[in-house]
Amino acid sequence: MIATLRLLLLVGVWILIGAGVPLLPALAQPAGSAPATAGKLRVGTFPDNKPWEFHDQAGTLVGFEVDMIKAAADRMGRSVEFVPMAFRDLFPALEDGQIDVAMCSISLTPEREKRFDTTQTYYDTSQGMVVLTSSHIRTLADLIGRTVSAEAGSTNEKWLVTHSARYGFSQIVPARGLDQAVQWLHEGKIDAYFGDMPALMYRLLDAPELAVVQRQSTYERYTLTLPRGSPLTEPLDAALSQIKQDGTLSAIHKRWFGAMPAPGSAVNTVRERAGRGN
């Protein structure tokens, strides 16, 4: 049943979007950063981000990106230590040396590329708008005078701020996770929530009262983010290349979405990382 639902999810995303080994021992952190624990990769993430990272019924952290980073770290000869925090705190944590890597379906942007190191991208997608099916909201034009929401610090929130005047939003309320946003929708605190399509569609599997009614013409490319000048950037990027080439990442995709990724997708194609021709 779950496999069938995941396959339906994958098909739904394609329709709506229009379709997205040991290497080195522990190395020192950049100047100003706290030293990393030998043999461990400290990965900061917000664990309320299905299907990328979330806690299952047993309380175990699971998800597409969780499996991905474990596989990549294994190729590097490292274990993974997950450091939970709000999405908006991930980037200050990188700069303060609290974590080695930020991972939470992080979209590559020019601002982030200038501020941090990034790996090659590993997933392509788009943004969408979710509402209650009982509402009369079907397009962006229906949001005049309405309250909207997105994950605090995300590219979704940035899109809302940029287009607020154009669409006449009355208020933009930052959320901490999709579950909180769904609760707000039911309580009437917000009228629409904006997020990336895979997370929205995955959440809709057990929420028939919700619907994705609009897709924004954006292009989101997910990447792992590291402190500027981190000695871990190249080894981690190389490890991503390995799990793409040997089929590990494609198998992870099938595990979480019920089907293999399309040929030539970011899941199974090695790409130049940002700053090196990507």
TrEMBL record:
SMART domains: PBPb, PBPe. GO terms for molecular function: ligand-gated monoatomic ion channel activity. Its main location: other. Keywords: Signal. Residues 40-259 form the Ionotropic glutamate receptor C-terminal domain. SUPFAM superfamilies: Periplasmic binding protein-like II (SSF53850). Pfam families: SBP_bac_3. It is found in: Cell envelope. Belongs to the bacterial solute-binding protein 3 family. This is Amino acid ABC transporter substrate-binding protein. It comes from Ancylobacter pratisalsi. The lineage of its organism: Bacteria, Pseudomonadati, Pseudomonadota, Alphaproteobacteria, Hyphomicrobiales.
